Amino acid sequence: MKDLKFYYKKAIKKGFAIGAFNFSNLEVLKAIANSAEKLKSPVILAVSESALRYMGEQFVIENVKIIKENHTVPLFLHLDHGKSFEICKKAIDLGFDSVMIDASAMPFDENVKLTKQVCDYAHEKGVYVEGELGQIIGVEDNTHSDTNIFTDPEQAQKFVKETKVDSLAVAIGTSHGAYKYKGESRLRFDILQEIEKKLPNFPLVLHGASSVNSDTIAMINNYGGKIEGASGVSEELTRMAIKMHNIVKINIDTDLRMAFTAGVRKSLVENPENFDTRNYLLEGQIMVEKLVEHKIDVLLDSEKKA
Ligand code: G3H
Ligand code: 13P
Ligand code: ZN
Fold first, then answer.
1. CA distance 207 to 232
2. What are the pLDDT digits (tens) for 198-212?
3. Distance, CA 48 to ligand 3 centroid (Å)?
4. Protein residue with its CA nearest to atom 3 in ligand 2
């Protein structure tokens, strides 16, 4: 099977991106893999530290193994926002294809030191490492930063050179979660361009890329939910970042959570007599499948070009 490096190189050349979709239950995992298979697109199965704790390591490893065996498309298991050497080492030893060491809240030198330590360990085992420089704001229990500190292009160059990291998450205006912008969404393409000048053809990653679809929110609210004032980054901006820049990996979690919630809520409200958990979880899964298909087809282009 071709590795992530192969796809990142190709993505830069052809102007597409690989979707990194977060999961924290079996239904969402199955939905991501089913949609990838349907569209013949590689995808990254992303697990955060807290999702790993929630599901249990063995559950993740065994289920991903079975799912990989039963699908023909490349599925890469990735640790999202690993905060310590220990958790990255654990993921590497468990057989993850790639890990993110997120030391972006630390001072530059400490970030370099920790990222390099993870790279040294990972590279010996053929595992890919993503680092982060700058801070991507947002609150999602394990991923929290209050201020938006954009990535400094000069520092980015130094960071990659010193750590030997394989890809870099950049802070250019996105944030984690469902409340990203007051008003129109914005991305700092000027900063992105400067980073690319310093790091030509280097794989960059966009976190916080959920678009927070208003129809999905309406569906959640129509079926008893209460989500107000949510907003995401427009798909048009993300598409520009993919097509015209070296963004090769797009991280999406919130959109999947919302799609799943909408499906479950609708099913529960429309079938008040039902208490078979599989029935409403399946409706959530189907919503996530549609969402992932949409992202691959309309946003990422990874089925046609990968
Ligand atoms: O970027 C972080 C992901 O959305 C994971 O969030 O730590 O709540 O699982 P989580
Ligand atoms: P969203 O909250 O925009 O889905 O971002 C997810 C993410 O960056 C996971 O690392
Ligand atoms: Zn993230």
1. 12
2. 999 999 999 999 999
3. 9
4. 208
